[in-house]
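Researcher: Sequence recovery benchmark, item below. Answer with residues only.
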């Protein structure tokens, strides 16, 4: 079993945007303390070179444990944290369903992260892609009608990913046509260990634009 203590977490300095936020949310919810390192790109390149032998994958987000284990990439990291911190499910069918929604959410993240480099595509994204993504996740959150989470009353690691992408794509206050997700967001934001952290979010975070 992985020892989740003396954690060091690394992601680019993108505020609350990008693929780094779901793990922060989960760790806060679990009450696990961690050092939150938000790196400038040049600092990440230096760290990546330094860790080339220990962490050959060389991708963010990255979590380093106190016993020098390295866990990286967003979805595999979330699956590991879910398993170790009790945000996973034992049933084969339920586990597969959660993994499917995690991959679909990762696809949505990819479309949003692409806008960092192609901001001129935002209008196309909003008109053609956003509705597809949110409509699909809304339907999947209705598969367990008791809610409020994907699997009903049990929260899993994918719920942290879904909340983060809803915020990333500026949907948290635009869910009147998505009742399953509106119910989810209300319950999620009222979780005891998340209230203070979510309240610290900037109210008007500017879009990330990466010069290319």
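Model:
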């Amino acid at each position: 079993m992985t020892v989740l203590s003396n954690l060091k977490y690394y992601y680019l300095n993108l505020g609350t945007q990008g693929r780094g936020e779901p793990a922060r949310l989960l760790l806060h919810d679990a009450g696990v303390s961690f050092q939150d390192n938000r790196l400038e790109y040049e600092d990440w390149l230096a760290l990546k070179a330094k860790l080339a032998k220990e962490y050959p994958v060389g991708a963010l987000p990255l979590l380093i444990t106190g016993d020098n284990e390295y866990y990286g990439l967003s979805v595999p990291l979330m699956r590991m944290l879910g398993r170790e911190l009790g945000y996973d499910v034992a049933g084969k069918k339920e586990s597969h369903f959660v993994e499917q929604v995690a991959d679909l959410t990762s696809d949505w993240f990819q479309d949003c992260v692409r806008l960092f480099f192609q901001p001129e595509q935002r209008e196309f994204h909003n008109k053609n892609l956003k509705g597809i993504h949110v409509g699909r996740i809304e339907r999947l959150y209705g598969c367990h009608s008791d809610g409020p989470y994907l699997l009903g009353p049990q929260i899993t690691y994918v719920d942290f990913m879904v909340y983060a992408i809803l915020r990333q794509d500026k949907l948290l206050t635009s869910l009147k046509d998505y009742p399953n997700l509106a119910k989810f967001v209300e319950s999620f934001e009222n979780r005891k260990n998340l209230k203070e952290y979510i309240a610290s979010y900037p109210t008007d975070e500017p879009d990330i634009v990466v010069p290319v």
